[in-house]
Write a structure and sequence with these properties.
Elements (H helix, E strand, L loop, with lengths): L8 E6 L1 H10 L1 E2 L2 E2 L10 E6 L24 E6 L5 E2 H7 L4 H10 L9 E4 L3 E2 L5 E4 L4 E3 L1 H6 L14 H7 L3 H17 L4 E5 L2 E5 L3 E7 L3 E5 L2 H6 L8 E2 L4 E4 L5 H22 L1
Antiparallel strand pairs: 1-5, 2-8, 3-4, 4-7, 5-9, 6-7, 9-10, 11-12, 12-13, 13-14, 14-16, 15-16
Helix pairs in contact: 6-8
């Protein structure tokens, strides 16, 4: 078998909000590798040798807001010896073959997964060769980004709400979790208004129903003391206080998201009862 010729240029795709976070931290930080969503996982930066953004599983919803669209920003990087070919790397890590096939299929990547690479280390902004907005064709000046006194914004990024901005300033590894939590609560409380209250994303309907917040090692959910008391039998494995629940990031998954949804629904029903 011949030796694969490593490409000279590697690409990382992200959203405008993702790029804003990268410019803040000056790194492409690690995210889930999808080897195992709960146990034995490791963080990676997802990369590809293909400059074409299609069929990498980056856009599952055509109605996704532009600022969250990971098909809009392309970062070009030199291919480092430490970058590993995902197909071979995932096999060495012991990924189950049926899970791997499902992952590739869900991304419509049967023709593209061979272009995937990963880095097990954060990638500093000093390594960037080029940043491009694929949607507009604009090249974003790396020098301008580095020289910026704040390094907080990229050109033309407009936040639709305070909660969008709150999520955008979090590490990339936490942003997806926060977006999923926000969506789950929004579906549970469709008539509530979203705002920032007590410096936290909040769902409000005549009064504050529930808050969530990114902490250093855990997601904080703040539904109030009555909700904590009501759900106490199901919260024994979590650290709680009078009105707060701590969900550690390292064990966060569908079970925790479902519980948060139930708590939000209870808060909504409790609020309706109190208003009638």
């Amino acid at each position: 078998m011949g030796t694969r010729r490593k490409p000279e240029i590697i690409y990382h795709f992200t959203s405008p909000l993702g790029l804003s976070a990268i410019l803040r931290s000056r790194y492409i930080t690690l995210t889930e590798s999808n080897l195992n969503i709960r146990e034995g996982n490791c963080g990676v930066v997802w990369l590809t040798s293909s400059p074409d953004v299609k069929n990498h599983g980056l856009k599952f919803d055509e109605n996704i807001p532009a600022e969250l669209d990971k098909t809009s920003i392309r970062i070009s990087l030199p291919n480092r010896p430490s970058f590993k070919h995902w197909d071979e790397w995932s096999d060495r890590k012991g990924i189950a073959s049926d899970y791997k096939e499902a992952l590739i299929s869900s991304a419509n990547a049967e023709e593209t997964y061979k272009t995937w690479y990963i880095s097990e280390s954060e990638i500093p902004i000093d390594d960037f060769l080029k940043i491009e907005n694929i949607t507009t064709g604009e090249t974003i000046s790396i020098d301008d980004a580095l020289k910026s006194s704040s390094g907080l914004e990229i050109p033309d990024v407009k936040f639709r709400s305070e909660i969008d901005e709150y999520i955008a300033i979090q590490p990339i590894t936490i942003q997806v979790l926060l977006l999923n939590v926000r969506l789950a609560i929004r579906q549970a409380l469709p008539d509530a208004t979203e705002k920032i209250s007590w410096q936290m994303p909040t769902f409000w309907q005549g009064s504050n129903l529930i808050h969530f917040a990114a902490q250093k090692n855990h997601l904080g959910i703040y539904p109030g003391a009555e909700a904590i008391k009501h759900f106490a039998p199901r919260l024994t494995e979590y650290k709680t206080s009078k009105g707060a629940i701590q969900f550690p990031y390292k064990s966060f998954g569908g079970e925790q998201l479902h519980l948060i949804t139930e708590i939000a629904e209870w808060c909504g029903k409790k609020n309706v009862t109190s208003l009638t």
